[in-house]
């Protein structure tokens, strides 16, 4: 199971031209400043934003090309949004089950999948709680469970730690990395935080103004940053 995508889009003065390849069991970070096109690329992969041209193939299945567009709910792509977007009126169990229900899984089977993921994520005791009662770290695990309960072939993480307080970010980052590794599928992480890249990613694609400016493993990026933007990130991270 792997991912291959060529994403092209033009919106006014902004253009995006991006090629991505992610193999099973690896996490690819899309790193770049605000406005670089990271979240736009994620929206295209999720089927929420149409490509102008290009293609998306996940696990050998064509999701987008010149003649094909698979709708979001049928793509088998799990998305964990920056603000988690949990339904405040639903319980934790119902929120996680929604991930499976949205792909057409019957209610009983969806609840079973949700219970399994709550147990795997260590939050089974929160099944009857509602999102306003959760801490930031707990809400993140619920959002991850909802994304994984849909049995995705690709996991997309949109700035997954940006909404957390700095004091708990390191602990939650370590937990997130462990859960991603245990899941074992291809993952694409969108972030502007270099700590996220170092802790969670295997490979990195740097985007600046809609264009790729560097492709590397995390180690290669640290050892040989290709642009001033990456150099500043590495220098700041090294000083921490």
Automatic annotation (TrEMBL):
Disulfide bond recorded as keyword: no
ABC transporter domain segment(s): 7-234
Alphabetical list of SUPFAM superfamilies matching this protein: P-loop containing nucleoside triphosphate hydrolases
UniProt keywords, alphabetically: ATP-binding, Nucleotide-binding, Transport
Domain of life: Bacteria
InterPro entries xrefs: AAA+_ATPase, ABC_SmlMolc_Importer, ABC_transporter-like_ATP-bd, ABC_transporter-like_CS, P-loop_NTPase
PROSITE patterns: ABC_TRANSPORTER_1, ABC_TRANSPORTER_2
A single MF term (Gene Ontology): ATP hydrolysis activity
Protein name, as recorded: ABC transporter
Organism of this sequence: Salinibacterium xinjiangense
Organism phylogeny: Bacteria, Bacillati, Actinomycetota, Actinomycetes, Micrococcales
């Amino acid at each position: 199971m792997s991912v291959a995508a060529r994403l092209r889009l033009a919106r006014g003065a902004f253009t995006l031209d991006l090629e991505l390849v992610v193999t099973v069991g690896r996490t690819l970070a899309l790193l770049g400043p605000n406005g670089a096109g990271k979240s736009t690329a994620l929206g295209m992969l999720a089927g929420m934003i149409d490509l102008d041209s290009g293609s998306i193939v996940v696990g050998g299945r064509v999701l987008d090309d010149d003649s094909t567009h698979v709708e979001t709910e049928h793509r088998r792509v799990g998305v964990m949004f920056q603000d988690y977007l949990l339904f405040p009126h639903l319980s934790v169990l119902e929120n996680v089950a929604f991930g499976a229900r949205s792909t057409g899984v019957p209610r009983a089977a969806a609840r079973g999948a949700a219970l399994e993921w709550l147990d795997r994520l260590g939050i089974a005791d929160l099944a009857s709680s509602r999102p306003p009662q959760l801490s930031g770290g707990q809400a993140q695990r619920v959002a991850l469970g909802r994304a994984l309960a849909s049995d995705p072939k690709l996991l997309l993480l949109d700035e997954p730690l940006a909404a957390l307080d700095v004091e708990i970010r390191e602990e939650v980052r370590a937990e997130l990395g462990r859960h991603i590794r245990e899941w074992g599928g291809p993952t694409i992480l969108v972030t502007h935080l270099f700590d996220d890249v170092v802790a969670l990613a295997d490979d990195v694609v740097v985007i600046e103004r809609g264009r790729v400016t560097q492709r590397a493993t995390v180690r290669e990026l640290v050892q040989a940053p290709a642009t001033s933007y990456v150099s500043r990130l590495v220098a700041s991270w090294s000083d921490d």
